Amino acid sequence: MEKLVPGGDIDSVKIHVKLGVPAAHRPSPSPTLQECFPYGKLLPVEVVEGGLVASSGTVLAELGDASDQMIIVVAAVTVGY
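Structure (tokenized):
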């Protein structure tokens, strides 16, 4: 690990997440996002306009779907120290 992270301390790496979300669907980042990363310090999540809204071709009323719309979010994760 020493070659990848100076000092080998993976808990000190910094994680930056940037999410591209369609403008009409911009949520606030979940506080549980940190749980997705087994180590490091999660920096403030950046949410920008992007992603895609498209038809999924399926409506699952039993799951609360009101339309066949699917929302695609693009994530860029940068890890540094």
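The mean pLDDT is 86. Residues 37 and 78 are 12 Å apart (CA to CA).
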